[in-house]
Structure formats: C-alpha cells, structure tokens
Amino acid sequence: MNEPETFEILVDGASITARAGETVLQAAARAGIEIPTLCHDDRLDPMGSCRMCLVEVAGSRRLQPACAWKAAAGMEVKCETERVARHRVHLLEMYLADHAAPATPEPLAPKNQVLQLAERYGATRRLPALEARREARADANPYVHFDPDQCILCARCVRYCDEVEAVSAITLAGRGAKTTIATAAQTQLLDTTCELCGGCIDTCPTGAMREKKPRSVVELAQPVKQVRTTCNFCGVGCQLDLHVADEKVVKVSAPPTGTTLNDGNLCVKGRFAYDFIHHEERLTKPLVRENGQLVETSWEIALKRAAEGLRGVEQRYGAQALGFVSSSRCTGEENYLVQKLARAAFGTNNCHQCAAT
Ligand code: SF4
Ligand code: SF4
Ligand code: FES
C-alpha cells in the first residue's frame, strides 16, 4: 500500500503534519518545534552520530535520533521528558570534557553550539577532561584554521566537503581518542583538491574549523553590522552577508541555509576575496583620456564621451562596426541592459559576454 503524502504524528502531545519521507526532526522543525542538534545540517545526509537530538518514540525501548528517524503515520514522539533531559545534560558534559573553549573567543566567530546548548540545558563541566588531546597541525593555507581541541568529531566538515562540494579534501583520520580531522595523506590543504570554499568552516558547530582571515583584521571592539548583498565576482548572483565594522568589510558569510538560492554555500572568491573593496588602487571615479593621460571626471562627462565615441563609429562605419562585450562579473540584469543597448540603441547583434563561451 502506498504511503499517504502527508499524515499526522504526535510531538509532545501536539498533532503535527509530516510529509512522506520526512524525518521527525524535519516535521518538528516545520511545525516550529525545536529539537537540539549538533551533527545535523539540512544540506547533508543524516549521520546520527552526535546523539544530541535523541527523543522518545512510543514503542521503542531506546531513545532515537530525530534527525535520522523517519516519521510514520500515528507515531508518538516526546522531546521534553525527564529521560531526554537527563540524556542531554550527560551527553553535553561528555562533550565539554573533550572540548576546550577558546581562550579568547574571536569577535566574528559563529556561536559555539556546544557551549550554547550546555548553558541552555544546565550542563556543567564536571567530568574529568580526556587526556588524549589531538595535536594541532600547522597548515599554510591562507583561510582555513582547524583547532582539534574544539572539535567534537561530528564530521559535518567532512560530509560537507564530500556531499556538497564533491571535493573530499578532508576526512576523519586516526582511531579512538586520537581521531581527528585531516587530509587523507596528512598533507597540507593546499596539496589536496581543496577549493578553499570555506564551507567546512560554515557548517562547523563549534568553531573548530574557523577563518584565519578576520583574526588579524578585527582587533577593534567595533559594532559589526551585516549587510545582505549580491556577490559581484560572477553572474551566478549568490547572496552574501557583508560584516561591516568601522565602515570596512571585515568578513563575508553566506546567508543561513534555506534562505537564499545559494543555500549557505559560497566559493573562495565570494567568501574570502573581499579585500579588493578597500584596495588603494581600486578605481572609485570614472576616468577619461586627456592628451594621452587618464584623468578623473564626473559620470556625466564619462558617459557622454562614451556615447559620442560609439555614435561616431556608427556614423562613419555603420552599426556592424560596433561590438559590445560585457562581463561575467555583472549581474544578469546588467548584462541584459548591455545587449539591449547594442540591439535597441545601435541596431547590432554584435554583443557577447565572456561567461557565454
Ligand atoms: S574549504 Fe571547502 S573544499 Fe576545502 S576542505 Fe573545506 S569544504 Fe572542503
Ligand atoms: S571540525 Fe567542526 S564540523 Fe568538523 S568534525 Fe570537528 S566539530 Fe565537526
Ligand atoms: S543531530 Fe541527530 S544524531 Fe546528531
């Protein structure tokens, strides 16, 4: 018999609608019920390794992971029982024992979810710390820093690199308490297929994977505001959030997963190459040539000069002597306007854009 497309399940006594194929976590999230997670990322296949999302499922003797447990018609789930609460506190205490909080939290680092959950559920650091600390390895890449002391081995970074980036540059390496995140051949990241997309940093729930870049830039305790904008490195049009302090962009992040079409993903240019914005050699005013020299001018004069030049060629040699080449760094709308200018204002189809080749 075919499973219905939607059905009801009971979560903490409330009847909610689940869709066929959904996990308990997904159905609960759509109904606004929050179940704590650590190894879960909407973009990745469930791994069920961190055990943070364990809940009671009627008919099951053991607690079950909501992130991997499929919802079924009539299922009864309890997320806030005494047993679940005890489990959460004990689990978090074990994570805290193997988890060093950063001595000086970075101003722009994302929140450490282990510490946040420990505070929310009242877990304190009372278990003795594990002795087998994993060694930090120096890596010369310019953007990604890995601190094994803060890693909880949730493997989100590894799975992101594999499932979303399809690069598989990093892996879980070693055994037992020595398990850590490393490249397969224990080389540096730059010696692998790593594209320095920074997605492993973005998905990491603890800050063990973090950006090298803002550390030196943001010593100042400036308020940081976020500005949503469109990346101008290529025509794909990814949305990104600029973090602005003291009128300077000090970091770029992807908007949260599920809120924009790029779904929390960025490439190395969009995420890390924002220095050009404040580069001292960047052109900030239009230039025109006067007696062989480029001199600053107003937009009005620059555009008038360009229009006169184009009309001059058209009048002397005809519209087919003109060609319009736009850039893959423009938005789709800007490229549309360039071809409109070529066709409607000058009557030529000679227009091209480098991303079209
Ligand atoms: S930066 Fe991107 S490609 Fe490199 S290890 Fe991280 S997720 Fe993989
Ligand atoms: S570095 Fe972060 S994302 Fe990767 S396994 Fe450790 S805690 Fe998880
Ligand atoms: S979030 Fe479900 S086991 Fe980690």
Set down the secondary structure blueprint.
Elements: E1 6-11, E2 14-19, H1 24-30, E3 54-57, E4 64-65, E5 76-78, H2 82-97, H3 113-121, E6 144-146, H4 156-164, E7 170-173, E8 180-183, H5 199-203, E9 209-211, H6 213-217, E10 225-230, E11 239-245, E12 248-253, H7 268-272, E13 287-290, E14 293-296, H8 299-317, E15 324-326, H9 332-346, E16 351-353
Parallel strand pairs: 1-5, 15-16
Antiparallel strand pairs: 1-2, 3-4, 3-5, 6-9, 7-8, 10-11, 11-12, 13-14
Helix pairs in contact: 2-3
The structure holds iron/sulfur cluster (SF4) (2 copies) and FE2/S2 (inorganic) cluster.
Question: Concise description?
Answer:
The chain has 357 residues and is α+β, with helices and mostly antiparallel strands.
Describe the structure.
Helices cover 25% and strands 19% of the residues. The protein is α+β, with helices and mostly antiparallel strands and 357 residues long. A 5-stranded mixed sheet has the order 2-1-5-3-4, with helices on both faces. The radius of gyration is 27 Å and the shape is elongated. The relative contact order is 0.08. Strand 1 and strand 2 form a beta hairpin. The structure holds iron/sulfur cluster (SF4) (2 copies) and FE2/S2 (inorganic) cluster.
